[in-house]
């Protein structure tokens, strides 16, 4: 069945399409008699406003923006992003909100795309997937008083709405567990250092080693949270390193899988020679052999909580958001003895 358009309504009502548009936006320039006629015609024809037309009246689009500073193929190659987006989508669908997903090449494009979404009134609020040191995008959103929720945390901006886990404590507890299992020389394998999540996890690692008089702290920073970067970063370390080590703590499961392949290609046995721990507990990780020991983060729930919070902010003037910290759990599998 053909969708009824503004032109159809105008033709039947005997008015111009611009008059119908003004009735939709409740313009004061249109008489009550004409408004009544047009609205009656809209009802009879079964005309339904699209999201853009509705926004002219309500100033709301019922749409949430989600912008990622990475190309689409890279984002969905890491299960973390698909899992968190799934959590967000469950809530937006339930609450009758649309979700605009925009992937960009880098951080500067992320800023530009987010500002474009706001200026064009395409979204009512945005969910930020990660934060960096001195994050200018957060500053711009705060100055514009535009609703947002951050998945992660920002050390420069206290009191903003966030959903996170305690990355410092999670890594600290994991390193302590490794010490108790007689692992002594632990390498940390991290994503880019500009991300707050990388910094927090590095702090947890450094804190645990410092408290146990381990002076040899070794953190390897790689280009991204990907399998290939984990593989190449670990190979480089193995080729240049002359000091022994018995465990790798990777700050992401995809990095951990790359490291696992690298140490195996180098002739080591896991977990006999080297233990490996990942981070996130991505789906399918438990089905690999050896199955990866990892820190479980409730990724899907983080997405749900962020979407719930943002929609609550949008619909409740007295609610400014809050800080939600979700628990983590070390899941022991086959890559540790």
Automatic annotation (TrEMBL):
A molecular function GO annotation: transcription cis-regulatory region binding
Record Gene3D superfamilies: 3.40.50.2300, lambda repressor-like DNA-binding domains
UniProt name for this protein: LacI family DNA-binding transcriptional regulator
Keyword DNA-binding set for record: yes
Transcription recorded as keyword: yes
Sequence ranges assigned to domain HTH lacI-type in this UniProt record: 4-58
Keywords, sorted A to Z: DNA-binding, Transcription, Transcription regulation
InterPro entries: Cro/C1-type_HTH, HTH_LacI, LacI/GalR-like_sensor, Lambda_DNA-bd_dom_sf, Peripla_BP_I
Entry-linked CDD domains: HTH_LacI (cd01392), PBP1_MalR-like (cd06294)
Pfam families: LacI, Peripla_BP_3
SMART domains cross-referenced by the UniProt entry: HTH_LACI (SM00354)
Sequence ranges assigned to domain HTH cro/C1-type in this UniProt record: 2-48
Lineage: superkingdom: Bacteria
């Amino acid at each position: 069945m053909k969708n009824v358009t503004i032109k159809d309504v105008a033709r039947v009502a005997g008015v111009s399409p611009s008059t119908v548009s003004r009735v939709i936006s409740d313009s004061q320039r249109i008489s009550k008699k004409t408004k009544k006629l047009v609205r009656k015609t809209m009802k009879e024809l079964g005309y339904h406003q699209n999201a853009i037309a509705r926004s002219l009246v309500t100033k709301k689009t019922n749409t949430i923006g989600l912008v990622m500073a990475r190309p689409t193929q890279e984002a969905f190659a890491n299960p973390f992003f698909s899992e968190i987006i799934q959590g967000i989508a469950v809530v937006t669908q339930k609450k009758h909100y649309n979700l605009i997903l925009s992937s960009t090449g880098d951080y500067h494009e992320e800023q530009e795309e987010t500002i474009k979404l706001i200026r064009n009134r395409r979204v009512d609020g945005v969910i930020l997937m990660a934060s960096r040191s001195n994050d200018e995008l957060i500053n711009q959103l705060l100055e514009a008083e535009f609703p947002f929720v951050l998945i992660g945390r920002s050390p420069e901006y206290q009191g903003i709405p966030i959903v996170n886990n305690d990355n410092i404590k999670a890594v600290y507890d994991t390193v302590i567990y490794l010490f108790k299992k007689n692992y002594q020389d632990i390498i940390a394998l991290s994503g880019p250092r500009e991300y707050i999540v990388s910094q927090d996890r590095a702090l947890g690692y450094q804190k645990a080693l410092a408290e146990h008089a381990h002076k040899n702290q070794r953190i390897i920073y790689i280009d991204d949270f990907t399998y290939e970067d984990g593989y190449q970063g670990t190979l480089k370390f193995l080729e240049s390193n002359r000091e022994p080590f018995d465990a790798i703590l990777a700050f992401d499961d995809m990095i951990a899988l790359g490291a696992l392949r690298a140490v195996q290609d180098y002739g080591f046995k896991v977990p006999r020679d080297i233990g490996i721990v990942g981070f996130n507990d991505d789906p399918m990780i438990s089905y690999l052999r050896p199955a990866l020991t990892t820190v479980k983060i409730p990724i899907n729930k983080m997405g749900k909580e962020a979407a719930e919070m943002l929609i609550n902010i949008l619909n409740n003037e007295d609610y400014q958001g809050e800080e939600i910290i979700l628990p983590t759990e070390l899941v022991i599998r086959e890559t540790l003895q």
